[in-house]
Structure prediction request, 555 residues.
Amino acid sequence: MNSEAKPRVYDILAKAFTQEEVRTCFALLGDANMNWAARLSEQGCRMIYVRHEHCALAAAMAFARKSGDVGVATVTCGPGVTQLITALPAAVRAHLPLVVFAGEAPLKSGWYNQEIDQAPLITATGAAYHRLHMPERMPVAVRDAFLQARRERRPVVIGIPFDLQDRPWEGKTDLPKPSRELLPRPSPMPPHPDDVANAAKLLTGTERVVVLAGLGAVEAKAGAACRALAAKTGGLLATTLPARGLFHDDPFCVGISGSYTPEVGIEYLKEADFVVAVGCSLAYHAGGGGQLWPKAKMLHIDIDPVAVSQGQEVARHHLRSDARLGVEALTAALPARKPGWRSDAMAARIRDSKPDSHAFEIDPGLLDPRDVVEALEDALPQEWEMVNSGGHCSWFFAQMPSRPQEKFLTIREFGAIGNGISFAMGVAAARPDRTVVLFDGDGSLMMHVQELETIKRHGLNILIVVMNDGAYGSEVHKLRSEGFPDDGSVFGYCDFAGIARGFGLPGKTFKNLDDLPKLVAEFGASGGPAVWDFHVSDKVVSPTIRRAHPAKKQA
Ligand SMILES: Cc1ncc(C[n+]2csc(CCOP(=O)(O)OP(=O)(O)O)c2C)c(N)n1
Ligand SMILES: [Mg+2]
Prediction:
């Protein structure tokens, strides 16, 4: 900025974001945000210029989850804002703190091509929307948006007409105190002793305990406490899908609980007589819709324990507390007991069983997705960051038991495909020193394949692994099980290696797994990005689909 010139409102707005310590912003420019974005960039913020607004927001979501900070994105008014509507509900439901700088149509004109009432669109998703129409208050309003995003852990979209952004700044030169300085910082909430005593009484006499941990347990650093509780009760450990890997090296962890439970987990969870759910929202899928542990009583340890979640009665017993403090107090209150359910044989079964042992016939020239995942599990370095996208293939990709939670990210709320590439960009931005591996489906990658260009241009160190079944697997298997034609869900094996090369990235097609270890080592040495396309059979059906959609007997 020319220091002689009088600052404009966008200058001050950029400073307000810088003062909030925004160092990364995912952006797609237009008339209503470009001057502000240019100033933010000048002030040292790393701008990642994506090719679709949805991807700016989705990348900011993964950035927020990985960094533990507020994710920031910016879009222009009108069509820039309407592109956000698929990502926002997921961000709301995943409790991600985000601030979106959105332009608004100019106020001075009687008509503007891109004008649309943005507030109801945004608030319909559950995100907050603030119109900033008073220039002198804007720095405070920006600060308050960050405060709200942090406190409520949800996206806040601020809409600023671009003619107001362009005005000379007439307000104070001092910026308000940043949100970090104002944020209440309560200590972790201890449990009430009566609740601990009740919970301990409930656990007395139980024989088959499962300690199930979610992201709340991860955040509260309750992993060791959960292991100790499981050990003292002679019970097993499990996690939700997002928290997978929290107990990756514990011999009594049966893996993910929910739709992605491996074979051995299904068998043991069915026998549970008591589930201690720690720091999880008890989402519908985490308990397999109530099918996974039919005999178990449920104790929910959480700062906000629930009885009913996502339409189901989930827990009769509650301990309101920080996850770690609650589990520690409960463990301390329990008398010592016999090993319970645990045995060496059980540990050996957990260690040696395949996630899914069902036999399928694989056509020549195609791979079994389960073999692909097993080979990747063996070959990929432990320190690489993993991103699991969605679709049918994500069942297989979730079965990598050696990978720890802190190297894993999935955001599945709202169930949209097409987010993997953006989430990988967000992780790469939050962990610039790491290699990121994205596990995606062909349909999902195709939905925002344009971001290969962003990845190339920004030199993001991402290895994209495509489980290419030439189809929308989820739909194919359901249609076939119902006896419907599978048209509309089978597309054939498009050439992702060729597509990658078109964007200037190296691409490779895998029809066998022989060279995988060598190629992983070469990739590790040279760095990313790259696209690896694994051609897999569309005949391998995940256990979840097999259970929910058993093949109908054809007449
Ligand atoms: C935005 C959006 N559109 C459509 C769907 C429905 N849907 C769920 S899974 C899926 C197929 C995904 O295909 P792919 O990424 O190839 O993974 P696969 O299921 O084949 O493993 C579709 C279309 C969705 N979940 N989200
Ligand atoms: Mg597919």
